[in-house]
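Posting here for the record, re: pyridoxal-5'-phosphate.
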Amino acid sequence: MAQQDIFQRIKERMHSDLGRYAPFYGYFTFPKLEGPIGPRMIFNGKEVICWSINNYLGLANHPEVRKVDAEAAQRWGLAYPMGSRLMSGHTALHEQLEKALADFLQKEDAFLLNYGYQGMLSIIPALTDRKDVIIYDSSSHACIVDGVNISFARRFVYAHNDINQLEDRLKKAQRIVRRTKGGILVITEGVFGMHGDLGKLDEIVSLKDRYDFRLLVDDAHGFGVMGPNGRGVAEHFGVQDKVDLIFGTFAKSMAGIGAFVAGDKYVIDFLRHHTRSQIFAKSLPMAMVEGALKRLELLRERKELREQLWKIVNAIQQGLKQRGFDIGKTQSAVTPVFMKGEEVEAANMIIDLRENYRIFVSGVIYPVVEKGTVLIRIIPTAAHTLKEVEETLAAFEDVRPKLEKGYYKGALWLEKYYSLS
Ligand SMILES: Cc1ncc(COP(=O)(O)O)c(C=O)c1O
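Prediction output follows.
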């Protein structure tokens, strides 16, 4: 068979599958949100109320955070330190941040990760080998799915939050590892980022009475938000000590860059020396580390930020429910709104919301949700006001009958608004 030029194939794909995305560039994909990060930003030249940013505690533009970020960048520049942590990129401040995270999470130790995705991608294969079995939730984030794919371990997936199926998988895994002399790793999210429901950590840890396994929880959306002290979903369920490894990112409630994994000291030490995406990559710059220390301090000490977040969460979720909207099973700040409609209707409704109501939300379609369902995801933050909640609820009340009456059917409206600079 004749050899193929990879770039030629890509050129051909530009007109087929990649071509499909071209009209969306700058609007649905790669939209430019401008102005300071906050509840009101500029999109397509107009001010919008923004519900698409995981700035849960409103720290992105908090004056104390901005001050520390600026001072740290001034003091260190953005290059420092050079090299990976293991070789030459380690500092006392990196260590201090790890200690502070471990202390907050009531774990013996914590390991910093440059990005959550990259961290998780390597933690999973570092923990497991071909004798082991990984069992993970079917709605897991890409970082878990991809990390499982890199691992040599056998893997079973269980239907989302189906604890009976998890137990069934545990039984099968137990039979395998008895033969291979391996172990079992269960992985779930704390808050599921699309639907806002919680991983059933209480039920999962109770399975430990009958099965031997270790539990790794990705609490990207729970850290800083859930639990009386913001420690996350494990704290919410009172099982902090039973979750073996807690993973979180700075990209959401901490409004920064970086991530961490926390657990027993010997395991974290092992991960320090075996997590390839960290060993073979430059360490976090000082400005990010100092900034994260400040953010963690505010997250711990300013309970009013979390209280304000929950005030906004409750207002928007109650408001939507009272108006008859289906917000699924969310128990977290992530607020999905499910409606019936086709892909093009979802897109046109989002355009209408953005352009005419000045509400910036993002939508999710098949295959994340079933065909014929539109999911609009709202991310409330402590920076939003009740007035912004009211304006948004009024907009949703307005667009729903339009959707129901078929107003959004037909061609995509994008051309009408596609004068993006
Ligand atoms: C559940 C979950 N895990 C991991 C990540 C990755 O985090 P980061 O942005 O730090 O790479 C995200 C962020 O999108 C997430 O939602």
